[in-house]
UniProtKB/TrEMBL annotation:
Gene3D superfamilies: P-loop containing nucleotide triphosphate hydrolases
Cited InterPro entries: AAA+_ATPase, ABC_transporter-like_ATP-bd, ABC_transporter-like_CS, ABC_transpr_LolD-like, MacB-like_ATP-bd, P-loop_NTPase
The ABC transporter domain, residue ranges: 2-221
One GO cellular component term: plasma membrane
UniProt GO MF annotations: ATP binding; ATP hydrolysis activity; transmembrane transporter activity
Name of the protein in question: ABC transporter ATP-binding protein
Keyword Signal: no
Upper taxonomic lineage: Bacteria, Pseudomonadati, Pseudomonadota, Betaproteobacteria, Burkholderiales
SUPFAM superfamilies given in the database record: P-loop containing nucleoside triphosphate hydrolases
Length: 221
């Protein structure tokens, strides 16, 4: 469902990575590991059209994405992608429930449907009772879970997640990984997850390590 062919990225003259190729099936869980600074976050941003690439081609559900304009990318993100950023990007002026429901709001869903789905996601991420809070009143791990709930609320085809369990205790992290499993099984969501956590990589179907010259089979760490 996702295919990358020889993606390359530079920052000015400085190469980040090249020859990054990958095929991801519906419902597949791929863990992406690699040293700090090797370009994992950059690669996730590139797959979501948030960062331009310098070479290579990418497809989602058979559609080549290279020709999309800004509006096309925005629509694709809204309808088919979920993104958990390394820095969360939870909107500080909205409540927890409004943050989680935002993707559905943008898709024009009805208020009672949004409320029901948000309640389900808050429960699944262990945030029940916190829907009325503002983000400033949450811990780091709670914020991370708001970001995860928001990324899955609209049942995306592809979830791109950058260290989504980094701030969580082992029990809460396991619960989040269960949630990803459920999305895979029930909605066929494919998961591309950047992680250094052994426990997260152990749950993946495959682990790939990003090197400056491409992806190779790898272990976490
Ligand atoms: N705007 C920028 N201009 C120049 N270089 C940049 C810019 N943004 C990122 N970089 C560089 O690109 C490289 C890849 O960064 P990226 O954030 O993708 O790494 P990462 O693998 O996600 O690292 P980490 O594991 O620490 O999160 C780094 O060497 C970084 O310094
Ligand atoms: Mg990163």
């Amino acid at each position: 469902m996702l295919e990358l062919q020889a993606l390359a990225k530079r920052h000015g003259e400085v190469p980040v990575f090249r020859e990054v190729s990958l095929r991801l099936e519906a419902g597949e869980f791929l863990a992406l590991v690699g040293d700090s600074g090797v370009g994992k976050s950059t690669l996730l941003h590139a797959v979501a059209g948030l960062e331009p690439i310098d070479a290579g081609r990418l497809w989602l559900d058979g559609e080549e994405l290279g020709g999309l304009d800004e509006a096309g990318w925005a629509r694709l993100r809204r309808e088919r992608l979920g993104f958990v950023f390394q820095a969360f990007h939870v909107l500080p002026q909205l409540t927890v429930a409004e943050n989680v429901g935002l993707p559905l709001q943008l898709l024009g869903q009805a208020g009672d449907r949004i409320r029901a789905r948000v309640a389900e996601m808050l429960e699944a991420t262990g945030l029940d009772g916190l829907g009325g809070r503002m983000p400033a009143q949450l811990s780091g791990g709670q914020l991370q879970r708001v970001a995860i709930a928001r990324a899955l609320v609209h049942r995306p085809r592809l979830l791109l997640a950058d260290e989504p369990t980094g701030n969580l205790d082992p029990g809460t992290a396991a619960r989040i990984l269960d949630l990803l499993d459920a999305a895979r099984r029930r909605e066929g969501t494919a998961v591309l997850l950047v992680t250094h956590a052994e426990a997260a990589a152990a749950r993946a179907d495959r682990v790939l390590r990003l090197h400056p010259d491409g992806l190779r089979p790898g272990r976490s760490g």
